[in-house]
Design goal:
Blueprint (H helix, E strand, L loop, with lengths): L11 E2 L2 E2 H7 L41 H14 L3 E5 L2 H12 L5 E5 L4 H10 L6 E5 L4 H10 L4 E5 L11 H11 L2 E5 L4 H4 L9 E5 L13 E5 L2 H14 L5 H11 L2 H20 L4 E5 L9 H7 L6 E6 L2 H11 L4 E2 L9 E3 L20 E5 L5 H11 L3
Parallel strand pairs: 4-5, 4-6, 6-7, 7-8, 12-13
Antiparallel strand pairs: 1-2, 3-9, 8-9, 10-11, 11-14, 13-14
Helix pairs in contact: 1-2, 2-9, 3-8, 5-6, 10-13
Bound molecules: pyridoxal-5'-phosphate.
Length: 394
């Protein structure tokens, strides 16, 4: 089976297409100097013209900073929401959102294969504040409906594609179930990026990103973002962000914005290379299964083709010989660097059970030991295929 392309890009709003927004939204040339790139406002405080006389609405950089504003305006445009907030990391964004929308005693449905750090936040931090959670197979909308009927939830936390099993959740269908049950729908859009998927347009209330990944795109900055559908929620979130302080620093915001300008072309190339890698792995005798939503045999393929514009750069696969064999493959690649994280221009390989998802060991979210995760970069596709071939047992 050959990995397929997603649906064509249908976005061309009044303000322009995706690529235009990525390069121009929030990024007008500097009025004072004409600099075409927003300056790094490396500053903590701002002169006031008399008490309370703010020149451009800024008084202190925890509350607001022009470089961060530029990033936030661009993120809001790319996700199609009225308000975005940029954070010091994806986890800071998640924590701020959850502490804004939830109160002690609330209940949240989470993916049965969530990112390990998200699970740790629920299981080890927020549970101490009486926020309960339940892992549910969110790809099964019937299971979501049943879980919501059994116990009211304040929110449903979706990842799609999931990290690391690449399962696909039908965002529009889950949004419908959430609306009926009075729950908010949050979608972690890190794996797809706004270039491939816009959850707010499909009915989500909030989108979360680890901008560390595809948005930044160069493995040189850690950051996070939340984009909301409701401006009033945006105001409440901004209040919590200012009160708790996990904001993106000016230089980090600038680096992330620089990465975003090339997001569209990078995502295209990630997708082409990942489809080639998935095709090669699918026929390799040492591989027992390939998890890539672009493959027609993937259980979420149809939904992914409906809600994504392409299938992205993440591929997971299982190898013959179990955990030790998987660990050995991870140690044999030369071009795929062994390391955590994803979404950068360079290809990465990792062993989720011992690395990114070690924190879910022994929990209902435990991942298989024979699983390998690839973040397929934008190097020459032939070189990537060759590297994997030489690393896999013959
Ligand atoms: C899907 C997903 N969400 C959230 C995060 C957390 O982001 P950060 O590492 O920027 O805090 C990650 C990190 O790997 C992730 O993969």
């Amino acid at each position: 089976m050959t990995a397929a392309a997603g649906r064509p890009d249908d976005r061309q709003g009044e303000a322009g297409g995706f690529e235009t927004l990525a390069i121009h939204a929030g990024q007008e040339p500097d009025p004072g100097t004409g600099a075409v790139v927003p300056p790094i406002y490396q500053v903590s405080t701002y002169a006031q013209d008399g008490v309370g006389g703010l020149r451009a609405g800024y008084d202190y950089s925890r509350s607001g900073n022009p470089t961060r504003t530029a990033l936030e305006e661009c993120l809001a445009a790319l996700e199609g929401g009225p308000r975005a907030l940029a954070f010091a990391s994806g986890m800071a964004a998640e924590d701020c959102l959850l502490r804004t929308i939830c109160a002690p005693g609330d209940h949240v449905l989470i993916p049965h294969d969530a990112y390990g750090g998200t699970y740790r936040l629920f299981d080890k931090v927020l549970n101490r504040w009486q926020l309960s959670y339940r892992p549910v197979h969110l790809a099964d909308t019937g299971a979501v409906r049943r879980a919501l009927a059994e116990r009211p939830a304040r929110a449903v936390w979706v990842e799609t594609p999931t990290n690391p099993l690449l399962s696909i959740v039908d965002i529009a269908a889950v949004a419908h179930a959430c609306r009926e049950a009075g729950a908010l729908l949050v979608v972690d859009n890190t794996f797809a990026s706004p270039y491939l998927q816009n959850p707010l347009a499909l009915g989500a209330d909030a989108v979360v990103h680890s901008t560390t990944k595809y948005l930044g795109g160069h493995s040189d900055v850690v950051g996070g973002a939340v984009v909301v559908a409701d401006p009033e929620l945006g105001e409440r979130l901004a209040f919590t962000q200012n009160a708790t302080g996990g904001v993106a620093a000016p230089f980090d915001a600038w680096l992330t914005l620089r990465g975003i300008r090339t997001l569209a072309v990078r995502m295209e190339r990630h997708g082409v290379n990942a489809a080639r890698v998935a095709d090669m792995l699918s026929t390799h005798p040492a591989v027992t299964g390939v998890l890539y939503p672009g493959l027609p045999g993937h259980p979420g393929h149809e939904v992914a083709a409906k809600q994504m514009r392409g299938f992205g750069g993440m591929v997971a696969f299982r190898v013959r010989g179990g955990e030790e064999a998987a660990v050995a493959v991870c140690g044999r690649t030369r071009l795929f660097t062994l390391g955590e994280s994803l979404g950068g221009v360079e290809s990465l390989i990792e062993h989720p059970a011992r690395m990114t998802h070690a924190s879910v060991a022994g929990s209902p979210l435990e991942v298989p030991g024979d699983l390998i995760r690839l973040s397929v970069g934008i190097e020459s596709g032939d070189d990537l295929i060759e590297d994997l071939r030489q690393a896999l047992p013959r």
